[in-house]
Amino acid sequence: MIELFHLSKSFRNFQAVKDVTLQIPRGEIFGFLGPNGAGKTTTIRMMAGLMKPTSGRVCLDGKDVLRQPEEAKSVLGFIPDRPYLYEKLTGQEFLDFIADLHGLETGNSRQKRIDELLTFFDLQGWCRELIESYSHGMRQRLVFGAALLHRPKVLIIDEPMVGLDPKGTRLVKGLFRDLSKKGVSIFMSTHTLELAEEICQRIGIINEGRVIALGTMEELREKAKTADARLESLFLKLTGGEEAGEFLE
Q: Residues 156-189: pLDDT tens digits?
C-alpha cells in the first residue's frame, strides 16, 4: 500500500535521507521514529509530494507520487507537523473548501460526511465559529477531520498527538485502530515512544538519514541484543543515545 524505493534527498552537500526502502502493507500502523534531524519530516514531505526526491520514488496504493500526483493524492490523507489553517474561515467552511479540493460533489452525502466528522471530533458546536477562535487541540482535531474527509486509503501523519488533551489522544488512538481494521495504511512519525509501542504493529528507526532498524518490538530487541521490553531503551541503544539515558537515570 505504501512503498518507498531507494528514496534519497540531498540539500547541496548534505544528504538528509539516504536510500530508504520501505513497504507498509494494507491495514498496518507503522511507526517512524528517529532523533531530531534524522530525516523523518523530509521523508514524509517526499511521501506527500511536497518535496521532490533527489533519487528514488514513492508509491501510494500503486500510484507513483511524482508521475501520478493527482491519483496518488486522491488516496492520501496527510497531517503535517505544522498544519496551516485559514483562520478567517469557520470549521464548516474549511471542510467545504477541502471537499472542493478533493472534488466531492455538493449535496446531502457530502454534508452528511462533514457532519459525521464534526461530531466525531467534538466540533459540531463550533462549526460556525471562525477557526481563529479554536484552541490548539480543536485545530488539530479539525485537521484530522479534513484529512479523513475523502475516505483515504493511506494516512501519513507527522506528530499526531501534538496539542491534544488526554481525551483527544484516546479518541485518535481508537480512530487509528479502527481505520487499520478497515484496511487503511497508517504511516506515523512521532517522538512519543509510548504511543508507537502501544499501537504500531511495526516500527522503523531512522538515524542520520538511514533506516537502521525495522520490525516488530521483538525483532527490534533482537537487533539491539537486549531483553529490555521498553521501546525507549531500544531506541536509545540503537541511535547512540544510551549514554544520555544512563546520565539521566
A: 999 888 878 899 999 999 999 999 999 999 999 9
* C-alpha angle 167-203-178 in degrees, rounded to nearest 5: 40
pTM score > 0.70 for this model?
Answer: yes
Return phi, psi of residue 97, to 5°: -60, -45
Question: pLDDT digits over 6-46, tens only?
Answer: 999 999 889 999 999 999 999 999 999 999 999 999 999 99
Q: How many domains does the chain have?
A: 1
State the number of CA atoms in the 13 A half-sphere of 213 facing the CB: 25
Q: What is the CATH number of the domain that holds 91?
A: 3.40.50.300
CA distance 124 to 128: 8
In which domain, by residue range, is 125 found? 2-248
Q: How far is 220 from 230, CA to CA, in rounded Å?
A: 11
